[in-house]
Design a protein that fits this description.
Elements lengths: L18 E3 L2 E3 L6 E5 L7 H14 L3 E5 L3 H16 L6 E5 L3 H7 L5 E4 L17 H25 L2 E7 L5 H7 L3 H17 L5 E6 L3 H19 L6 E2 L7 H17 L5 E2 L10 H9 L2 E2 L10 E2 L49 E5 L16 E4 L4 E4 L6 E5 L12 E4 L1 H10 L4 H10 E6 L2 H4 L8 E6 L13 H4 L5 E6 L5 H14 L6 E7 L4 H16 L6 E6 L1 H10 L14 H15 L8 E4 L10 H12 L6 E5 L5 H4 L5 E7 L2 E6 L2 E8 H14 L12
Parallel strand pairs: 3-4, 3-10, 4-5, 5-6, 6-7, 7-8, 9-10, 13-16, 13-22, 16-17, 17-18, 18-19, 19-20, 20-21, 21-22, 23-24, 24-25
Antiparallel strand pairs: 1-2, 11-12, 14-15, 25-26, 26-27
Amino acid sequence: MQLYCESLTGYKRLITKEVKIGNLLLGNGHPIRVQTMTTTDTMDTAATVAQTIRCIEAGAELVRITAPSKKEAENLLHIKKALQAQGYTTPLVADIHFTPNAAEIAARIVEKVRVNPGNYVDKKKFETIEYTDADYAEEIDRIRERFTPLVKICKEWGTAMRIGTNHGSLSDRIMSRYGDTPMGMVESAMEFLRIARGESYHNIVLSMKSSNPQVMVQAYRLLVKTMHEEFGEIYPLHLGVTEAGDGEDGRIKSAVGIGTLLEDGMGDTIRVSLTEDPELEIPVCRDMVKRYTATAASSNGQGQLAEPQNLVQVSGLSAGQVPPVAGIKLPYNPFEYKRRETFAVSNIGGQQVPVVIADLSKMGPITPQSLQGVGYTYNAITDKWSISDAAADYIFTGSQVLDFDLPGTLKVIVYPNIWEDGLLQRAEEEGALLTFKEKYYPIFQDSGYAKAVAKSAALNFVMVDCFNDGTPVNDFTYLEAIANDPTVVFCLSSTNKNAMQSVRRMLIELQQRRIKNPVVLITDSYWQTADEHLIHYATEAGALLLDGMGDGVCFGMSAASYQLFNEQGITLSGRRYATTTSAEQFVNNTAFNLLQATRTRISKTEYISCPSCGRTLFDLQETTAKIRSVTNHLKGVKIAIMGCIVNGPGEMADADFGYVGSGPGKITLYKGKEVVKRNVPSEVAVEELIHLLKANGAWVEQEALMH
């Protein structure tokens, strides 16, 4: 195993233990299972049954139902019987947090129970406590005494268990020793896993969820490494980004976290946590996993990348050799975030935020109005431009030189011959030549740059198609000729079937050779729908950005996909917030949303909102939409919207302000981790949240942003 996965240079499923959940087999090379969770009151049997059926019909292979107390746990029997009476045998999962008695009841009824180590018989008082080794051991003994009965029941009844750690609900004991860290999350789960293994119980799945994809990915990687080193075997993994939100934001954030791990062959089941109806989570899950097929269990769970079935165009995909990393020391730490060291070329690289390059090359004649989709709005009356926070830094126009003055700092990338022609046409006019040199820059194909006579003295883009030709050394032959050229920005892409792994291997090579040129990640999509494109971009580019690799992004579509996209219009599922009228606008929005999700460039308000469940104490979907509508102009402000206190205080640790259900019709408002107002009536709570934002200098009137 390579640190945390079977291969860093190609797709290979992580070998995990087989787990039986009812009649469903999970892990050990079986297909990646998709699941969701009901949002109805568990005591409302009819509503829960109806929603569960909708989820099953949408494709859910497991359905989770919250059981916060004994009465809900007991009612799971009625729900299960009602489903069976209608012919549904999909395994049910009881979600348990604070109540061991409820877990012990549920384990005799449903096929699987989920327990949260941070809440289950563990102390969580949000106090700073120093635990001695003796105190720590005493706590473990106490947990063993209270957790073991559930383990024995599960073993007796053939019930599976998920040990599900949430970043937002680590215990005082864990926090005191490990802090609010991925390692703390791992150890929280490992303590419970060791107890279960001590009872020879192995029907276990584990999860490491966080609202921050960066933390989530690091925690899963550390968990695999820890299990492999301690046990010599790995239990199946349930993947998810908790409290991901809704709309495009929730989908991208989930795709970044889940997709990064899926690309490395990790994950045996997934759930996309959206603040939307649970059945709307399933299509997103299916879009994520359909790329990854399982082989038979007898093949040791190797798995493979699926032959794409929904691509508009599949020609050109190659199976080039990617040099292995075995025997070399990785030049980065996959368990900690640290941005790759680069020097700055213009506004790319160094300490600057990643840039966004918008591909406008497939447009017809580009006019000032064409730039509206990438963040620039032209007012013909005033002859002025307004620039949004999500405005592309560069546009790639291919063979087009624009016949109008460009706004602000926007710059244009063109083919070398077009750039040379532009220089020649303006050679006799000093002012025009200077303007052209300041606004237009060439993009070369790989080794073509070294051979080129005409080059920009300031900025040159060099395209590299990583490991696409079947030879492991071809991509390295010309690197030394342009290495550390102070004008060069590498644009890395790959037509290799293992595209992300190929680009990552090239980035490793650059670091090994101490080549510090900045890198733009180029990702082209061949898929059909907006959902598929979004997931593709988030998975391939997001995985690299989470590891600190990438100083910019440029997303595009194949010609066939582009044509289809514009013909069929926007078909993104579920709730949408971003205005999208063209492929260019969709791609630009996605690029900025992706950078926001990876915490590499902040351009808007960030929302941490739970998907709702039977514990939720208000209409979460309606409230989330309402809060978004009045706060979505507050760039850089993080607002948490939580249905109850289970994960509220913890997941809000990363938020600036919090809106948390504390009782029926009652809301508690937070600033950071501190309670500001308790028991605010829900009908005025949004207004009180705005007052809180204003009182802390986080509020800006929308009118002020327009001047």
